[in-house]
Every structure is written in C-alpha cells, then in structure tokens.
C-alpha cells in the first residue's frame, strides 16, 4: 500500500540570469523594517555581489546591517553573535547571501531571535521552535538545497557536535537563483555540491517502502541529470546550461519532492558524516562520498530489489546476473563516478585517518541520538556504525 504524505513548498523561486537584481522588490514584499545580510567569507565581497545587493537595497531605502564569517560547517558561536546583533538592531528579516552553510546559519539565527532561550536546544532535541524570523536567500552554491528546505545543520564547537534540525517555520520566503553566480566556484566545491545534491535524493530513494513509481522516476531522472552535468562541469566549469541544471536539481532534491511517499528515507550516510564533519571539519559532500559505498555494501542485502533498481535505472548496469551481482555493480559504478569528478571513496582519500578511539567516539555520539537504531534500509546500532567507519577508513 502506498504511503500518505504531506508536500509543502512555500518558497518563491526567482531563477535565471540577473535574478539578483530583484532582491529589493522581493524584500519590500515582506514589509520588514530592517534586514540582516548574512554571508560567508570574502568571495561574495570580492565578486561584487554584496556591493550590488547593498546598492539595490539602499536605492529603495531599505535599512540593513551585515554579518559575515560563516564557514563551511556553520558554527554555533556565530549564530549566537547573529542573534545578539538582530535583537540589538531590531532586525525582522534575514537575507542569506551564499550557499547552504550561510542559509543554515541564517535559519538558526532566525530560530534564536524568534523563540528565545538557547537556540542549541532545537538541535539537541530538547524543544521545538514555534516560529522563525522570515528568511530570503541569494544562492551562490548549488549543493545543500537549504534554499527550499526545512533543514538546518549547525556545529557546536564545544565537543564537536554537528546536528541538524527540521522545521517548516524556517523555509525561506523567497530564493534568488542565478546559475552564473556559481561559475567562480573551485572545481572541488562544485563536485562536493553535486555529490550533496545526489545524496539528498539517494537518502530518500533507499528505503523499505512501497514507493510511488512517479516519485522513483523523478528521483532517478534527477540523479542521472546531475551525473551528466557534473561530468560536463568537471571539464567546462563555465557551462551555463550545466550550472542551471545542477542548481535547479539542488533545490528539487531537498524540498521533499523526491521523498513523497517514501516514508522519509534512510539518512544513515548523512548522520555518520555529521560526526566526521563535527570532528574533522571536512567538506560535507566529500565526506558523504567517502562513506556511501561502504554503507551500501554493508546494507544492500537488506533491500536487494532497491539496489538492483538503482543499478539498472540510474547507473545503467545491465539487468543480467544475480541480484547480488547487479547491486554490487551499481555500487561500484557510483564509486567510479565519484572518482571521475575527483571525490573520495574512503576516509583516507578524504584526507583523514580516524583512530579506533575517535571512531568509537563518533559512533557513540551518533547512536546516542538513535538508541533504537538508525536507518530505513537496515536498523544500525553502535557496533554497526563502528564497522562502517572502520571499513570506510
């Protein structure tokens, strides 16, 4: 029997060349008094994007304050700083200019300002947010899909905890998406982004549910499109059409479209990677690539049909041989794709070599959040996590 589901996507998308020129009119629609422009490092400033946005806002007499400094794994300390700044300045709208990390940081700030108390409580599972300051985005990196999602991931430096929180209250009011803004990204960051986009759909795709054929078809097409264009971008990083395909896929992959009727999906690779990111501060997409093949080999016998379908429909593996042979060939084909776009397929290739003690710590942190087991394909406990980490090392 097909599962019931709710599909909610309130974000207005403005997509295409020059889309960022509409930022002032979109902000004015929110009837806000003062906005926080939140951004990352120097790239947004050096590219002239921030200056253009600020000039546009000033021309419309829209008051704003700025806060930069977001890093790839956004930090709780900067979230606290943003909350204090917003309260001091009377900010009632946040404009995130950047990629998923900036948007996630903006969402966390929005939660903190709107709800009071310690914002980390939401990420630590102690309470739920009832509201969030309204947020808009100007996307510069196609990867996390945070520009349309209910998701938000923050790292607490004290203890190296990387935790996610989902709540529809944080879904952006609008997201401006100009593929040209992603053309200056380093090749590695582009490849990490493509990997992250694909994993958001793969996490939903791998499950034990009686999926809708339409949802599966959308998921499979999205994965094939991202793979095709990731290959193009490896050698032609300024290809606008490829950038546009990847950018739109990033949003659709994580706005829950590819999860309609799947029962939520697996998400084990993401959860395991969060612990790696919290401890070693690695690029999220690269960390996912380093773990996925090992996870897949560990669990595929629990859902062989799903892995066979993936191998045939996504990876183009011939439907000949046993289910085990086809499934393994599909896993190997995905790893070959990762290598082609210069993504790691092990933690050694990722540039880290966790000790047994560190692996024990990561598994302990992850299993503590999921005491009844993690994963939809196979319910994994602490010992399973340790085995996967060790095999991926």
From TrEMBL:
<dbReference type="GO" id="GO:0008106">
    <property type="term" value="F:alcohol dehydrogenase (NADP+) activity"/>
</dbReference>
<comment type="similarity">
    <text>Belongs to the iron-containing alcohol dehydrogenase family.</text>
</comment>
<dbReference type="InterPro" id="IPR001670">
    <property type="entry name" value="ADH_Fe/GldA"/>
</dbReference>
<dbReference type="InterPro" id="IPR018211">
    <property type="entry name" value="ADH_Fe_CS"/>
</dbReference>
<dbReference type="GO" id="GO:0005829">
    <property type="term" value="C:cytosol"/>
</dbReference>
<dbReference type="InterPro" id="IPR056798">
    <property type="entry name" value="ADH_Fe_C"/>
</dbReference>
<protein>
    <submittedName>
        <fullName>Alcohol dehydrogenase</fullName>
        <ecNumber>1.1.1.1</ecNumber>
    </submittedName>
</protein>
<dbReference type="GO" id="GO:1990002">
    <property type="term" value="F:methylglyoxal reductase (NADPH) (acetol producing) activity"/>
</dbReference>
<keyword id="KW-0560">Oxidoreductase</keyword>
<dbReference type="Pfam" id="PF00465">
    <property type="entry name" value="Fe-ADH"/>
</dbReference>
<feature type="domain" description="Fe-containing alcohol dehydrogenase-like C-terminal">
    <location>
        <begin position="190"/>
        <end position="392"/>
    </location>
</feature>
<dbReference type="GO" id="GO:1990362">
    <property type="term" value="F:butanol dehydrogenase (NAD+) activity"/>
</dbReference>
<dbReference type="Pfam" id="PF25137">
    <property type="entry name" value="ADH_Fe_C"/>
</dbReference>
<feature type="domain" description="Alcohol dehydrogenase iron-type/glycerol dehydrogenase GldA">
    <location>
        <begin position="10"/>
        <end position="179"/>
    </location>
</feature>
<dbReference type="GO" id="GO:0046872">
    <property type="term" value="F:metal ion binding"/>
</dbReference>
<dbReference type="InterPro" id="IPR044731">
    <property type="entry name" value="BDH-like"/>
</dbReference>
């Amino acid at each position: 029997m097909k599962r019931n589901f709710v599909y909610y996507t309130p974000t207005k998308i403005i997509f295409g060349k020059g889309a960022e020129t509409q930022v002032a009119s979109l902000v004015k629609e929110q009837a806000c008094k003062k906005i926080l422009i939140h951004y990352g490092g120097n790239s947004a400033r050096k590219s002239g994007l921030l200056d253009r946005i600020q000039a546009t806002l000033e021309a419309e007499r829209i008051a704003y304050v700025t806060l930069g400094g977001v890093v790839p794994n956004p930090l709780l300390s900067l979230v606290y700083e943003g909350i204090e700044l917003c309260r001091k300045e009377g900010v009632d709208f946040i404009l995130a200019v950047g990629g998923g990390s900036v948007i996630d940081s903006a969402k966390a700030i929005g939660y903190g300002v709107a709800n009071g108390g310690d914002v980390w409580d939401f990420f630590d599972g102690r309470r739920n947010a009832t509201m969030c300051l309204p947020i808009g985005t100007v996307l510069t990196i196609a990867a996390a899909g945070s520009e349309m999602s209910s998701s938000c991931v923050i790292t607490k430096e004290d203890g190296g905890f990387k935790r996610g929180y989902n709540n529809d209250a944080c879904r952006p009011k609008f997201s401006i998406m100009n593929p040209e803004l992603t053309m200056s990204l380093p090749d590695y960051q582009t490849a990490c982004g493509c990997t992250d986009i694909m994993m958001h759909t793969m996490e939903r795709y791998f499950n034990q549910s009686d999926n809708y054929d339409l949802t599966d078809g959308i998921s499979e097409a999205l994965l094939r499109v991202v793979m095709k264009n990731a290959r193009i971008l490896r050698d032609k990083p300024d290809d606008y059409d490829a950038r546009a395909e990847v950018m739109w896929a990033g949003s659709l992959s994580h706005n829950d479209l590819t999860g309609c009727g799947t029962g939520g999906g697996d998400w084990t690779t993401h959860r395991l990677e969060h612990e790696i990111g919290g401890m070693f501060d690695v690029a999220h997409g690269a960390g996912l690539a380093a773990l996925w093949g090992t996870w897949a080999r560990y669990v595929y016998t629990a859902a062989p049909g799903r892995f066979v379908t993936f191998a045939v429909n996504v990876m183009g593996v011939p439907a000949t041989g046993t289910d085990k042979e086809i499934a393994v060939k599909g896993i190997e084909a995905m790893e070959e794709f990762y290598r082609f776009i210069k993504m790691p397929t092990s933690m050694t290739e990722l540039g880290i070599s966790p000790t047994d003690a560190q692996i024990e710590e990561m598994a302990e942190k992850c299993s503590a959040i999921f005491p009844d087991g993690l994963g939809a394909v196979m319910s994994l406990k602490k010992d399973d996590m340790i085995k996967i980490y060790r095999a991926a090392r």
